Amino acid sequence: MAQSSKFEGKLALVTGASKGIGAATAKALAAEGAQVILVARDVKALEAVEDEIHAAGGSATIAPLDLSEAESIARLSAAIAGRWDTLDYLVLNAAYLPHLTPVTQIDGKQFTQALMINVVATQALLASLDPMLKRAKQARIIGLTSSVGAEPRAYWSAYGSTKAAFENILSSYAQETEKLGDIKIAIVDPGATRTDMRARAYPGEDPQTVKPAEAVADRIVTLLMDDFPNQHRERVEK
After folding, report:
1. Number of domains composing the chain
2. Residues of the domain holding 64
3. How far apart are CA 215 and CA 212, in angstroms?
4. Is residue 2 a part of any domain in this protein?
5. Residue 179's pLDDT is what?
6. Which candidate in 89, 96, 155, 159 is catalytic?
7. 173 noted as active-site residue
8. Is residue 3 predicted with pLDDT exceeding 70?
């Protein structure tokens, strides 16, 4: 059996759920009784997370897809809507980090990939899942961001600009839906966290000096349990 039932009867979708913060969040939500849809490209990694959730008594379903393909998102939403009526929790965690370079040397292909996954896919997910979110009694959306989205940093412009757009889309959607039901959005900066993305950005850093992904997952679950005001923003320091 799942460890708890605080989210019993709730449906959650987590993007980037094959590893890192996404996988940790999916496991934490399932441990509280939620049915979790795991979204990512790596089928084997998704299956490993699903197996771990099932072994702990939780409930999960994998949805392997490439978020940079609009048709994949349309198929995902259609499949979910065909099985469930509402979506209670949407955790937008998936992100692509281009190489860190000066503005003048940004790789166009990588920049486009970052825009597709970090920005375009976010809008597509909100658009396709909007009816299910609006039918939920209390829909909650958590968007994982980065400090470079609000505070430009040298060599991080390709990634930072996509996160700035990501935040803008979420904040706009929060305002647009505020009076159309009980939908609330929180933008969470996980801060320095032990993930593969962090390791690529800071190859010389000792991973043991930063917090594990589980710390961010625990904070996300606590936010959902305690609830939060619409357009809530915070940074997870520990």
Report:
1. 1
2. 11-235
3. 6
4. no
5. 86
6. 159
7. no
8. no
Directed axis angle between helix 157-177 and helix 121-135, to 10°?
A: 20
Q: At CA 32, angle to CA 89 and CA 79, rounded to 5?
A: 40
Can you read off the two tokens belonging to residue 2?
Answer: 């799942």
N- to C-terminal Cα distance for the chain? 29
Q: Decide if 89 contacts 12 (C-beta within 8 A).
A: yes
Q: What is the pTM of this model?
A: 0.96
Note the Cα 95 to chain centre separation in Å: 8
- For residue 147, tell me if it sits in a domain: yes
* The pLDDT value given to residue 167: 98
Sign of CA dihedral 102, 107, 108, 113: negative
Question: What CATH number did the domain enclosing 213 receive?
Answer: 3.40.50.720
Tell whether 135 is covered by a domain.
Answer: yes
| CA–CA distance, 29 with 12 (Å, rounded to integer) | 8
3 in any annotated domain: no
Res 54: pLDDT = 98
The pLDDT assigned to 1 comes to: 43
